[in-house]
Amino acid sequence: MAQGRKGRLNYRCPACFMRDLDIDMFYDKDKDEYYCLRCQFTGSEEDVLAMNEQIKKKYKVMLKRITVDDYAD
Ligand SMILES: [Zn+2]
User: Fold this and answer.
1) Quick check: is 5 in a domain?
2) Could you tell me if residue 20 is left (phi over 0), alpha (psi between -120 and 50 degrees) or otherwise beta?
3) 20 to 30 A from 17, CA-CA: which of 38, 45, 55, 71?
């Protein structure tokens, strides 16, 4: 059996993504948690999904702002 293999789905680490790093998380099936090797973020599937949703909302706002700035230029 492979150790430290990825979960059913590949989730991007939300903590790293906030720093513009696109890191896939690993799945610990003993704890039923996802974890990131880079930043030590650990969370359940729900935690990861909830954080990703928050980031998506933030990114939408940021993209909007950039678009408006480009327009003003
Ligand atoms: Zn991370």
Assistant:
1) no
2) left
3) 71
Kindly report whether the global pTM for this prediction surpasses the value 0.85.
no
- If 0-12 CB within 10 Å is exposed, 13-18 middle and 19+ buried, where does residue 47 land? middle
Distance (Å, whole) CA 17 – CA 15: 5
Cα–ligand 1 centroid distance for 40 (angstroms): 6
Classify residue 1: in a domain, yes or no. Answer: no
Distance CA 69, CA 38 (A): 33
Q: Is residue 37 scored above 90 in pLDDT?
A: yes
Domain that holds residue 22: 14-72
Residue 7 CA to ligand 1 center (angstroms) comes to 15
Ligand 1 midpoint to CA 68 (Å):
30
Mean pLDDT, rounded, of the chain: 82
Q: 32 lies in a domain? A: yes
